Amino acid sequence: MTSHLYRFFPQLENRVVQVQSGSVAEVLQQVEQLAAGFTDYVLDERGALRRHVFAAINDALVIDRRTLSDRVPEGGTLYIFQALTGG
Q1: Nearest-CA neighbor of 37 among 74, 77, 10?
Q2: Could you tell me which residues are beta bridge partners of residue 54?
Q3: Is residue 57 within 8 Å of residue 81, measured between CB atoms?
Q4: Do the beta carbons of residue 24 and residue 55 sit within 8 Å?
């Protein structure tokens, strides 16, 4: 996660978050159990990644931003970061 997210979820800072492998949606729900409100921050009201939030599994961007069905393999890493916009 980018350091920006730690400002809102300090309980995740300075730790490696390890959860069971599964779809991106399943992994995010497990993180939600550790940091209430996390999914509200990164997902919209339909459960899709917000417009300015990006996710990658290992070295590949998540393809299914709507239903989050991409699989995070055992031992894989899900990276979550907020894109910067503006002028």
Answers
A1: 10
A2: 81
A3: no
A4: yes
Both tokens of 36, joined, read 């209430």
Q: Which amino acid, 75?
A: G
Q: How confident is the model at residue 86 (pLDDT cuts 50, 70, 90)?
A: low
| Ramachandran class of 47: left when φ > 0, alpha when ψ lies in -120 to 50, beta otherwise | left
CA distance 55 to 62: 6
Q: pLDDT, tens digit, for every residue of 24-81?
A: 999 999 999 999 999 999 999 999 999 999 999 999 999 999 999 999 999 999 999 8
- Give the CA dihedral 25, 56, 38, 46, nearest 10 degrees: -50
Q: What would the two tokens of residue 59 be? A: 């070295």
Contact between 24 and 72 (Cβ < 8 Å): yes
